[in-house]
Amino acid sequence: MDQAAPPAVQAEGVVKRFGPTVALDGVKLTVRPGESHALVGRNGAGKSTLVGVLTGLHKADAGTVTFGGEPAPAFGDTTAWQSRVACVYQKSMVVPDLTVAENLFLNRFEENARWISWGRLRKRAERLLAAYGVEVDPNTRARDLAVEQRQFVEIARALSFGARLIVLDEPTAQLDARGIARLFDKLRELQGQGVAFLFISHHLQEVYELCTAVTVYRDARHVLTAPVTEVAKEDLVAAMTGERAAGATAWHAAGETAPDATAEPVLTTEQLSLPGRFEPLDLQVRPGEVLGLAGAAASGNTAVGEVLAGMRKAGGGTVRVRGRAVRAGSVPDALAAGIGYIPEDRHDQGLVPERSVAENATLTVADQLGPWGTVLPSRTRQFARSMIASLDIKTQGPEQPVSGLSGGNQQKVVVGRALARDPSVLVAVRPTAGVDVKSKDALLGVVRRVADAGNAAVVVSDELDDLRVCDRVLALFHGRVVATFDSGWTDGELVAAMEGVGERE
Ligand SMILES: Nc1ncnc2c1ncn2[C@@H]1O[C@H](COP(=O)(O)OP(=O)(O)OP(=O)(O)O)[C@@H](O)[C@H]1O
């Protein structure tokens, strides 16, 4: 890392307000060339807002930003911002139907050229990818890339515009262990070439693995910047939360009060299948039980969750809740049968952004909030208030549109909504994705309590922390259950099962 060179980015005294909300209150951040710098904080601390300011998306109300010692471009001068900084989001920013080469040179086909030379374009793409050591065929359609390959292409594209600072917003969210290893290798290699990274993540172990420095924001303020080697994990969490943790994660399988194996199951599936995604599956989840469906991206575990919730129609087989058959592919019937669902992607399936927290939280309970199908605003608000309190949602109040909530707080609204009907079976797909360490504990506690109250829960995830709450875990690989674990599993054996180690492919 070059200490003498001007910082890749330096922000000082940055203030940003959204109406009455102060999202950033005079914060600072310095990232040096060749550094991988983590920015951490609880949901709503201001991380995404800072990224918005640093990438020219938000105009700060006060403060200064410099790149390589030069003042940031004027607000709105998109081309100039592109040559300073780029953000690789969880959501793909490439056009899926175009090839890698076309995506790399999108909107900048050769100036003055009257036609596009596809051969030249491909050659230029090859050279560009080779320059950053990215092994991807420029003729591949973007949709066929693995997630980390798509990220490499986005990074190479940003670097080719001249940017020397790349923001990575939860980049590992959709990657399996091997993908993460490949991504981190590539980032280290580029760091060696002087590229700086700002890494936003709720996975603190990844911060320790990848980053050299860490900055913590809490409630819109800067609280700490230090080399990662000088901050222990407990101190980092304490800086984020403003309090000392009470101890290790409280949430774990029921243990001694293990679910009664003779009780009638709450959820039963028989030969449930979805061709191409998962093979016939017989499940029995008993009262008091949390069942984990562990598996990496293509394992089929998410598809099982979607089928249970009625989001997808099964190819065959049945689902029953307390003996009642659930109509295949019907969300209303799944809800009526008592299945509550926390989807993985709150953007596509979860929320109506312009509606309020209260309305979003009660979308599935409208029929319970007033007599004869009327929705009483007072009851909606009352329900929303209790949800805001119990899930610790950071919001101005029940009337605030969810579009004004931070990502993690939006996820909590999705969770609150799934709980609103007091479900017999809670199906939660990666319920703690994007949620801060403290809220994670609270959410897993909520899942545990659903089961402890005599209902059942199914947790679909590849996150070991999510799976610790389970009494039993089935590991899926390529659509098949390859292993079953009671609550005493070790990280190594579960990860191995999820990766299909020992399986013949
Ligand atoms: N467009 C907006 N309108 C109103 N308020 C907003 C808007 N964007 C963010 N906020 C508010 O600004 C604060 C900071 O939000 P921000 O998204 O920066 O948090 P974050 O640290 O990125 O959280 P997370 O970890 O959940 O992604 C929050 O209180 C949020 O509600």
UniProtKB/TrEMBL annotation:
InterPro entries: AAA+_ATPase, ABC_carbohydrate_import_ATPase, ABC_transporter-like_ATP-bd, ABC_transporter-like_CS, P-loop_NTPase. The keyword Transport applies. It holds the Pfam family ABC_tran. Residues 9-244, 261-503 form the ABC transporter domain. It comes from the Bacteria. Keywords: ATP-binding, Nucleotide-binding, Repeat, Transport. GO terms for molecular function: ATP binding. This is Sugar ABC transporter ATP-binding protein. It comes from Streptomyces drozdowiczii.
